[in-house]
Amino acid sequence: MSGSVIIVGIGPGNDALITPEAQTAIAQATDVVGYIPYVERISARESLTKHASDNRVEIDRSRHALEMASEGKRVVVVSSGDPGVFAMAAAVLEAVEHGEAHWRNLDIQVLPGITAMLAASAACGAPLGHDFCAINLSDNMKPWALIEKRLRLAAEADFAMAFYNPRSKSRPEGFGKALKALQEACGDDRPMIFARNVSRPDQTIKIVPLTEVTEDMADMRTVVLLGSSQTRIIERDDAPLVYTPRSVAG
Ligand SMILES: C[S@@+](CC[C@H](N)C(=O)[O-])C[C@H]1O[C@@H](n2cnc3c(N)ncnc32)[C@H](O)[C@@H]1O
Q1: What is the DSSP string of 202-229?
Q2: What pTM, to 2 d.p., does this model score?
Q3: Distance between CA atoms of residues 178 and 192, nearest Å
Q4: Cβ proximity of 135 and 161 under 8 Å
Q5: What radius of gyration, in Å, describes the C-alpha atoms of the chain?
Q6: Ligand 1 pocket: which of 117, 121, 223 to mutate (most atoms within 8 A of CB)
Q7: Which of 36, 78, 161, 164 to mutate to test the pocket of ligand 1 (most atoms within 8 A of CB)?
Q8: 106 pLDDT band (50/70/90 cuts)?
């Protein structure tokens, strides 16, 4: 049988959020490749070999997957959330573009998954209910000046926003700088939502006015959402609901 590389998203944490299509691909794989905690989520079976690797080796991992597919294996590359959102799908395609010529003709598929921002949005209502953008706050792969420019322009365009990789131990100051830029550019008290460990048993959702947020509210297990100027909060006895209306007055 000819080999394949299928890049699948396994959602934000709850197995119920893995699509049936991704489950089928995993069930038919001979080899699964990915970052250690994601590979650990895949049940062991005799006909499956697991290849777990550390963070930040995405290109090596992709090349390994493509080499195994060239040998006829059915390889699944696992990513959290959706594989096309700051994750493995782009890494595999980068490896294809710059790698062995015959890799281009392999059977390569990307299967979508539920990304953290959509699970977080659903957990508190519909803050991404109108136009929005997603920004990766890590400056490992792009200059900080570009991140700040995108934050200011997104605020000027009045997008709701989702922030991935907000704050890590190796980048403790970036999120504070991002908050300062957003507070200056937005100039109001729109809600910021800190959604941590979304869809997992220890999920927490905090809704905080933008003027009151502090940098220690986010870590690498948090996806942060920011409303647009139109975003509303519906107070009720239970947790409030947040939504951004579908229309904007002309
Ligand atoms: C490298 S990105 C991967 C994103 C992933 N491909 C997705 O579509 O969700 C990792 C970041 O995603 C966010 N994230 C992933 N899973 C999450 C979860 N269960 N709860 C909150 N944030 C999550 C966090 O911002 C984390 O720092």
Answers
A1: T-EEEEEEGGG--GGG--TTEEEEE--T
A2: 0.97
A3: 13
A4: yes
A5: 20
A6: 223
A7: 164
A8: very high
